[in-house]
Amino acid sequence: MFCDCIIFFNFITTQTAFMKKLFICFALFFISYGSYSQFLITEGKTSIQSNKHPAAIAEMPYPVAVVEAAIDEYMASKGTRGSESKGVRIFRSHVLAPAYPVKNDLYFKVEKKSRQEKDMSIVYLVIAKTGADFKAGGHEEGVEPGKILLQDMAPFLEDYFVTVQVREQEEFIKKVVKKSDALVETQKDLEKKKKSLDEQIAENLKKQEDQKAELEKQNGVLESIKLKRKTKN
Length: 233
Description:
Blueprint: H1 2-12, H2 17-35, E1 40-48, E2 51-60, H3 64-77, E3 83-85, E4 88-97, E5 100-112, E6 121-129, H4 143-232
Antiparallel strand pairs: 1-2, 2-6, 3-4, 4-5, 5-6
Helix pairs in contact: 3-4
């Protein structure tokens, strides 16, 4: 397939500039799609502050709480701290790229995909220029940068989710170890009690034997007394 691409590239280099641009777009699409195809990224609209806004949309295979925490971590790594308002995470005056130093406000809304798919999330991202009237809407120019940003976040989110899984598994293992240790200690206590009971049982058996011997002795004394009475008669 790689050789076919080279042949195709050699062919289009002899064609028009338009064909060259088309090939570059085609190649970039497959590179982007192949890297993180599990993140379905589309576009649409979402309701924020009682108005519909154009948004980049990503479907992510993680629970809402994890996605929200990962977004906070990702944006913090980019030097931008956010705030939360009515279920929307807002990051103000963020520069999307050093080569394009225009400041933008980012609005992230994360929702559970459905009741049946609790571990799947839908992320809506609305980007508006800082200082613009957000409620007025009309932020279509932020959709494509939003899609790129969500795609760039994909590897970070994957790493974050794995880190969360590792941490949760470690905590679970700690609980299992703690329970195992408790069972070992219980076993030791039970063995001590068993040893004590065995000793008590052995002592009781000895007392029973002693009591049996005493009973036989006393029965012998009784028979001797009865025998004397018969002799006198």
